[in-house]
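User: Hey, my collaborator sent me this sequence without any context and asked if I could get a structure. I don't really work with proteins. Can you help?
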Amino acid sequence: MNQTPNIPFLDLVTPHVELEDELTAVFLKAIRTGGFIGGSMVADFENAFAVFCSTEHSIAVSSGTDALRFALMAAGVEPGDVVVTVPHTFIATTEAISQAGAIPEFVDVDARTYNMDVEKLKEYLEQQCTKDPDGKLISRRSGRPVSAIVPVHIYGQCADMDTILDLAAKHHLFVIEDACQAHGAEYFSRKLNSWRKAGSMGVAAAFSFYPGKNLGACGEGGAVTTNDAGVAARVKTLRDHGQAKKYYHDIEGYNGRLDAIQTGILHVKLAHLAKWNAQRRERSAVYGELLKEASPALVLPYEPSWSRGVFHLYVVQTDDRAGLMAHLAKENIGTGIHYPVPLHLQKAYQSLNYGPGSFPVTEALAERIVSLPMFPQLTEEQQGRVADSVFQFLGRVAVGQGR
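Assistant: No problem. I've predicted the 3D structure and written it out in structure-token form, which is a compact way to encode the shape of the chain:
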């Protein structure tokens, strides 16, 4: 049996142990005040997260899926509309679109950033759509009106938002950011000549606080950020059974609230998020140095000059993914795949009538990508072990590293 210490893919224990006293105090406050739903802990976190994201409003909800669904509905998506997104993302992106009554249609991703390919988006809007007599954009594929674009800031790196927003404005569409993996990521807007936070650029944005996220709850959670007071008000109504005030229901809404204990926990963690994100960037840089000699057998993450990613995941590509993962597992090193089956090829979306070859970049990535261990408390010694094991598998020796 291999007695080598385990290197987990993700460490959810250490940060909670380090913050145990502060996190326990949140629970004690809730049970001593009876403030479990709503109240000051929810409002305080919402205000702090809005400041962190450089937005006017933040509304805490029960999950990232609800965050995206409510954002789409509040921004104006109508039943039967088309919402354009990417097939290289978790299914929650398209679930939210469908649950808002819309239909997802896809454009491929960029081969280097893994984010929405803006040239493919332009091609979709200008060649795969037409306009009705009122100037409304209509998908040739489905015959449905196109109302929105959902770029996904995958793995913690922002999509090319200047171009996406310009295309959206040209075609009278709104943009909702899926920032569920991008808490604290930044994008340099060439138009504004300034850095912008993920979640501050579209009409609204969705964040997830699933435990493994850069900012994770001790359970489920999410938030909508927006600079639009009307959108914020509609999200608040949607999350709380459509209530304008207690027992007065303007619309039929949902039970999508986030409880006080989870928001209190998130508020504690939010104070550490900038440091944790910086540590993730440092870990990424170390991986880059350790693994650079593995190229081209191992393709490392690419970060454009206009991006400051937060490395929710550290994703590489290799021809023999199964072999590499098996070798690392024998060395007690955890790995993951994000994501092995593109959404357009999932059984759940057979009715959309996409097939193999529809999105070649996404399909190629799905065969080659593997996520290496990445978390703020990852040590350089652990990363050295990961790199040694990768080189052992590849049969190479790192120049100057003595491996």
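In plain terms: DSSP finds twelve helices and 16 strands in the chain. You can pass these tokens on to your collaborator as they are.
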